[in-house]
């Protein structure tokens, strides 16, 4: 089995071009599975559906989370499909096994008052304060992911018409900017950014104090700093601002489909998680009135 695992990992690396993190996940899952089948004297090439089910139950018994068990099943399935491909196994024992349902965690969201308090913290009295104010206003106004925000170029923002074009792979979406965000962004782009950047050819929208493109870690540190300044006890990350954006839109009557488009969710079920923050009456009205509820 050791030789087949080595071939499988080489296949994932060379043919599938998977990232190192993903490869390491596959390797961990398969090595743990190998340990289990060898310990229980099971021939890996002749594993039955019952053996796979027993292994998944074993993972649950030792305290593995549902998401981890689901990922393990996916890794084992890929391994057996590879074995069939190289004619080292005749069937896939995972074929009719359903992944365990992963319960969606309730997103951490801020109240409107907490958002106001956080956004009040950066003072546009210097270059950094102007940038930070624009960035926090922008994050809450668009609900964009942190990676999407730091990847933006100056040309992706239309200050005249008030929207940003977010490009993720081959997909792109236009997200409107509110008046407060637009005002802060204009001030940053016109007064702060030209001084912060060291190279006029640099296209990054949000830059650090050294003039380079802002990093994920830099964004997180800035939010953490202003959270502490505002004395907010809740954990606040860029993703919490994204959750708050969606929740507040929904609470104020926005259409779920429109929120899905702005968030860039490919599946409406990902957006529906925000329904739980509605008061029961409004949720009931939505379920009865919306044609696709």
Descriptive notes:
- There is one protein chain.
- The chain has 293 residues and is mainly alpha-helical.
- The chain has two domains: 2-85, Tyrosine recombinase, N-terminal domain (DNA polymerase, domain 1), CATH 1.10.150.130; 112-283, hpI Integrase, Chain A (Orthogonal Bundle).
- It contains 13 helices and three strands; from the N terminus they run αααααααβββαααααα.
- It has a three-stranded antiparallel β-sheet with strand order 1-2-3, with no helix packed on it.
- Helix 3 (49-61) packs antiparallel against helix 4 (66-85), helix 5 packs antiparallel against helix 6 and helix 6 crosses helix 10.
- The longest helix has 20 residues, at 20-39.
- The N and C termini lie far apart (49 Å).
- The mean pLDDT is 87.
Quote the distance from N terminus to C terminus.
49 Å
* Relative strand content: under 5%
Number of strands: 3
- Cα-atom radius of gyration: 24 Å
Q: What is the 3D shape?
A: elongated
Structural class based on helices, strands and sheet pairing: mainly alpha
Count every helix, treating DSSP H or I runs of 4 or more residues as helices: 13
- The biggest beta sheet, please? 3 strands, antiparallel
What is the second-level CATH architecture of the largest domain?
Orthogonal Bundle
**Unreliable runs, pLDDT <50, ≥5 residues?**
none
SSE layout and pairing:
Elements: H1 2-14, H2 20-39, H3 49-61, H4 66-85, H5 112-120, H6 127-142, H7 146-150, E1 157-158, E2 163-168, E3 171-176, H8 179-196, H9 216-229, H10 238-251, H11 256-263, H12 268-271, H13 280-289
Antiparallel strand pairs: 1-2, 2-3
Helix pairs in contact: 1-2, 2-4, 3-4, 5-6, 6-8, 6-10
């Amino acid at each position: 089995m050791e030789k087949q695992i080595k071939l499988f990992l080489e296949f994932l690396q060379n043919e599938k071009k998977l990232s190192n993190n993903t490869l390491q996940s596959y390797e961990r899952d398969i090595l743990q599975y190998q340990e289990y089948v060898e310990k229980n004297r099971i021939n890996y090439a002749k594993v039955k559906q019952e053996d796979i089910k027993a292994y998944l139950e074993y993972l649950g018994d030792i305290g593995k989370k549902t998401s981890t068990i689901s990922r393990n099943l996916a890794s084992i399935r890929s391994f057996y499909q590879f074995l069939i491909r190289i004619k080292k196994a005749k069937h896939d024992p995972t074929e009719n096994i359903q992944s365990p349902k992963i319960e969606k965690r309730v997103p951490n969201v801020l109240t409107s008052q907490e958002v106001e308090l956080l956004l009040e913290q950066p003072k546009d009295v210097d270059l950094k304060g102007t940038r930070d104010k624009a960035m926090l206003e922008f994050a809450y106004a668009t609900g964009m992911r942190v990676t999407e925000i730091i990847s933006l170029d100056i040309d992706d923002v239309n200050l005249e018409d008030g929207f940003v074009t977010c490009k993720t792979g081959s997909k792109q979406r236009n997200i409107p900017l509110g008046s407060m965000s637009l005002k802060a962004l204009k001030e940053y782009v016109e007064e702060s950014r030209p001084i912060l950047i060291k190279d006029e050819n640099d296209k990054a929208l949000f830059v650090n104090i050294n003039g380079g493109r802002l990093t994920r870690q830099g964004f997180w540190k800035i939010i953490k700093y202003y959270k502490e300044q505002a004395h907010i006890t809740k954990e606040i990350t860029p993703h919490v601002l994204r959750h708050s954006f969606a929740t507040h839109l929904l609470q104020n009557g926005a259409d779920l489909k429109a929120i899905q488009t702005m968030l860039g969710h490919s599946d409406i079920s990902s957006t529906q998680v925000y329904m739980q923050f509605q008061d029961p009456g409004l949720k009931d009205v939505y379920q009865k009135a919306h044609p696709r509820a």
